[in-house]
Amino acid sequence: MPQLDSKLSEVVNQNVNAVGPSGIREFDQEISSIPGIVKLTIGEPDFDVPEHAKQAAIKSIEENKSHYSAQKGIPELRDGISNYLKDRTGVYYDPATEIVVTVGATEAIYSALTTILNPGDKVIVPTPAFALYFPIIQVAGAELITIDTSDDGFVLTPEKLQKVLDENGDSVKAIILNYPSNPTGVEYTEAQLKALADIISQHKMYVLADEIYSELTYGVKHHSIAAMIPGQTILINGLSKSHAMTGYRIGYIAAPKDFVTNASKMHAFVVTAPSNPAQYAAAEALTNGLDDPIPMRAAYHKRRDYIADRLEKMGMQIVMPQGAFYIFAKIPDTIDETSVEFATHLAKDAKVGVTPGSAFGPGGEGWIRMSYAASDEDITLAMDRMNSYLLELTK
Q1: Is the residue at 107 inside a domain?
Q2: CB 311 within 8 A of CB 346
Q3: Which whole-number Å values give the CA distances from 337 to 26, 334, 392, in the listed order?
Q4: pLDDT digits (tens, 9 = 90+) for 271-323
Q5: What residues form DSSP beta bridges with 222?
Q6: Residue limits of the Aminotransferase class I/classII large domain (predicted)?
Q7: What's the CA gap between 175 and 49, in Å, rounded?
Q8: Residue among 174, 141, 144 nearest 17 (CA)
Q9: What are 128-165's pLDDT values in tens digits?
Q10: Number of structural domains, the chain?
Q11: Is residue 53 part of a domain?
């Protein structure tokens, strides 16, 4: 086993060296070895990829579509994305110049942020938020500015945004909005987005709209800020959540041409191009499978209602999700533990895996995130175990 030569111990990108591992994944790994544990930690749909999408991937292999695709993605998929976004957002993106297919929404976020950020720039992230944003901003040498939304129903208010912009001026180059939200499941209304868009439009900054859960909403309509300020919006989406295609790793960026021209360079430097079979599967999904998310959404809706009811009966305060497949629950005030301590004891003593709220930044401490992208059986068992555990603690 080779050991790093001591002369190289400090030969490292210091921005990378300063970044810690993902709190979500790290905690999940720590508890995964517990025998019999039921995990509600990772946002991994328990559904299979729709059959017609799988067959499209197989067909591409059989037809020897095995060479490099266009770096921005195969034309069929970019056409499908363009048509989908025109239908869903009302904004037309030219598939030739304004769309780039990425290796998951993760690469889309990385390529987008590293395209626009320089050392010393600032990025606003309303928290609690998906923890991946934080290290990418740091690696780019930019400064993260968090806005704690926990006192405002986990929604960023125009007043708080304006205050931060007044304090930081033109050094703010972007704000990241993820809605429906991971970890809270909160969705923004059209009026709430419009109020934020009115402020953003007055500043020299982008909004990175991470809308990966846009197809998974419950009784509310999803609105995109891209329809309000298309010239300042970098729209991120993909098929991991809507079509249960997490392992296919297909995401995309849609934005004005000038931005996409540069972002596609960064994308090409990082990955060259996405996998062909995955792209053909995604093209089929967006062309002939726009109704595929409907039964999944119905199942998630049912699970949401069940888990919310069980948690409320346990006396836990929750944020009722309007989208995605997570529920954010407050640790009872009678339990004097941090979110990591509570989640660790819950895993070891009750064999239920949840994610500590502290992993999602300011406003997350004191809360836990549970994913209901798990089977009905696992959710029921987890709730039964959690109920027994809390009853024992309060004896």
Answers
A1: yes
A2: no
A3: 19, 9, 16
A4: 999 999 999 999 999 999 999 999 999 999 999 999 999 999 999 999 999 99
A5: none
A6: 37-385
A7: 32
A8: 141
A9: 999 999 999 999 999 999 999 999 999 999 999 999 99
A10: 2
A11: no
